[in-house]
Amino acid sequence: MTTTRSVTFVSAGNGQGQCVKNNAASVWNRESAVATVFYRSGYSGAIDSVEPGTKADLRAELKNENAGHIVGDAADDTFEYGVYHAAGARVTAWFDGYLNTPGRHEGIDVAYASGADVFAVLGGTVTRVTEGSDSTDALSTLAVYNATYAKTVVYLHLNPLGFAVGQSISKGQKIGDEAARGAPATHTHVEMRPGRQTAATFSSDTTLVNPVPTQFWMDRGYNACCQ
Description:
By secondary structure, the protein is mainly beta. The protein is built from two helices and 18 strands. The protein starts with 6 loop residues before the first strand and ends with a strand.
C-alpha cells in the first residue's frame, strides 16, 4: 500500500527540513522504495523520481514548483517495467504531464526501444483492435476492459498482436511490440478510462476527461516512476 512518508528538502536555506511542497530544489528519500515528486496536486503533471536512500536535485521543471509526492512499495515494480518488463524502460510523459505539447495528456507515455515487447498492465476483455501503419496519421489502438474494476486500459501506437474483440487478456501477457503507429516516435501510450470503452480520448483537449490514474496503478502493484 502506498503512503506519503517524508520526502525532505535538504538544501540550505528557506524550507530546509520541510516536506516537499513548492519550496524544494532537492530531496532526500530515506525510505526503501522510490519516491516520486509531482508538479501538480493529486499525483499528476510532470514527475521526478528519487531512488531509495538517495539525495538528489530535482529536474528543472520541478525545482521550487512541486505540489506533492508519493512513496511506493519496495516490493512493487515501476509502471514502465510493467509495460515493458525491461529495466531500461522509461516514462516520457506522466498523466497530465506534457511540458512542451499543447493540450492535456490523458494517459502515461512509456518507451523502451522500437520493436520491444509490450505487456498488459491489467487483465480483461478486448473491446477494440485497430492496426494502423507506421505513420502519424494511422493510429493503432488496443482497448481492454476489466469488469472487476470497471476500467478500460487503452494502448496506443503499438503494433498489436492478432487479438479479436471479446478475447481475454491476462495481466503480464504480451500484447504487441513498441511502434510509432499514429505518433512521430516509437512509444506506448497507456490510458485508463472509467467504464467499458473502445477508444482513447483526444490529448489536444484543454479539459481532462479521465481521472488521475496514479493511485489506481499504485493499488494494482506499480510504483509511479521515472523520467
